[in-house]
Amino acid sequence: MWTLRSDERLHAWKEFRHRLNDLPFDEAVAQTVHLWSFAPFVSHYLDRFEPEDWPSPWILLADNMYDDLAKSLGMLYTLYFTAHREKHSFALVKAVVGTSLENYNLVDIDDGKYILNFTFDTVISKVQLDKDLSVIHSYSANDLQLPKY
Fold this sequence. Notes:
The chain is an alpha+beta fold. It is 33% helix and 21% strand.
């Protein structure tokens, strides 16, 4: 999907999301993480301090540049725009773990039942973290204005 032209990539993403509708949620989450783990990585794309400037799902896919924050947004957008959103809560979380100064951009689903983008191509839960997760900021789907799409 990542090497396709912009219009083809958007169509492939739409088809991917439709396939997720027919899967159990655990499997939909795993496939989403797998897809986004292999998106092309750039060192800097989005300003983590300016969420009002973050792109819509379609602009994100059209630009095809993904730093850590953009990958988290992509995972959240992908799952949010499926039928699964009716039964699950989604948030983008900026966090630190333990005493680390490293910031993480994570997708938190169902209050930590699923944590995405902490470990490459892996879905974990909050209880699997061997250190304390300290949330710096959390953005709900409403904060990201996703219902307007």
